[in-house]
Amino acid sequence: MARSHLTLAALATAAVSGLDVVGASAHGTGEGDYDAALLTARDGGQWIIRAPRSQAAESTQSADAVGLRALSTGVRSRLPFTVPTIAGQASIGPTRAIVSDYLYGSVVRLARIDAELAGSIGHAIAAIHSLPTSFVADAGLPQLTAHEVLRTCVGVMDRASATGLVPSALLGRWERATEEPVLWQFAPTVINDALSPDSFLSAGGSVTAVLGWQGLKVGDPASDLAWLLGTGAEDVTAAAFASYARERGGNDRHLRARAVLQAELEVAKWLLHGTTTRSTEIVDDAVEMLHAIVDSTADDLDDPVTGATSAAARASASAVAAGEPVRSATPSPASATSPAGATRGARPGASPRSTSGASPTGPAEAESGLAAAVAASAAAADAVRPVADRDNARTASASA
Questions:
Q1: How far, in Å, CA of 262 to CA of 226, rounded?
Q2: SS3 content of the chain, % helix, strand, coil (to 5)
Q3: How far is the C-alpha of 335 from the C-alpha of 230, rounded, in Å?
Q4: Tens of pLDDT, residues 358-397
Q5: Which of 12, 13, 286, 378 meets the CB 3.0–4.6 Å disulfide criterion with 271?
Q6: Which alpha helices (DSSP H) does 146-221 contain, by range?
């Protein structure tokens, strides 16, 4: 049974010493993974209290709390945006509720990202990747080597292959990518590893906050950039990668290629989820997306991922070197995020197959079908992923 906002407000006063609540309201639609309330304190400060409704949501919230606590004041000072601060927690039945500060800003929606905001997102991600890895080790969080990242990708690929549902041409493409040594010669960095459009709050075309730190670790920086391939607009994606490159440099020449592979493997993970849960609907959905990737990369299936992206990556790098702005265009209407009050995990209106069109003739076209599949798989993944510490943005987004 859902907990009322008044019950949660009373719990918050027990969780945070000295908190004097003078106003409380239900937060969100009441249909998510958490019971939540927006609280107003006597001093005018606003807070969010959240209590998980399931074991999966509790695990996500606990992991997020570990990540947030690892982000010390010194670490946070290196970031050009804010992150939530946990004020206290209190037991409620078999679980616990967590109180954190309320962060203002509009939740980012994939279909509405323009080149300006994409550049700010690239800058924000680069700042995360520039953090010293030592604090991750000190917090006891995972530290993956490049070889371990490769091994993880191979594991997903092998398990997906065992289902017998992945097109052989796509399996060959993945195998060639995992066997390409230069692709895996990269320096692991601090990564969030749970980024999606609604991880970001923005105002005036700039990122103001990043939410959801349950995946914090040292790993492949491409993991944090893969979702950007779902924008469906090459200039938007290019703006994000170009901004990232300006901050981080161009030493990781195969960053975008690995991001493509990571994005394609997200669809494989969706397939595996469908087989594990024995959901025919999910399996059919994933198979459709996998075929969309085959259709969209038809001219590049013999290339180990790099062929579909290298020209686009070079174009972005050339624009940066020449100081040329990346012009904005209208993003794809397909969105992988859900606005406040919408049903999470809803499938974009057009199927990836129907948007893939004819065989691609260039790198931008080669990624168009992938973009649709990435957007769809991200939305599908949200259907089974507990809503993390991003819900505190949704009320603010309505009034921003």
A1: 6
A2: 50, 15, 35
A3: 8
A4: 333 334 444 455 555 565 555 555 444 444 444 444 434 4
A5: 286
A6: 146-162, 168-178
Name the residue with tokens 């982000």: 71
| Burial status of residue 208 (CB atoms within 10 A of its CB: 0-12, 13-18, 19 or more) | buried
As a whole number of angstroms, the distance between CA 149 and CA 206 comes to 31
Q: What is the residue whose two structure tokens read 């905001």?
A: 117
| Contacts of 323 by beta carbon, 8 Å cutoff, 6+ apart | none
pLDDT in tens, 88-108: 999 998 999 999 999 999 999
> At which residue do the structure tokens 């972005």 appear?
316
Sketch out the chain's domains with CATH numbers.
Answer: 5-102 (3.30.200.20), 107-392 (3.90.1200.10)
The structure tokens 């289902």 sit at 163
Structure tokens at 262: 């990571």
Q: CA triplet 282, 350, 228: central angle to 5 degrees?
A: 80
Which residue in the block uniquely carries the two structure tokens 């259709």?
Answer: 295
Closest by CA position to 15, among listed 102, 97, 83? 97
Alpha-carbon torsion 370, 149, 175, 308, what sign? positive
Cβ-contact 247, 166 below 8 angstroms: no
What's the pTM value of the predicted model, to 2 decimals?
0.78
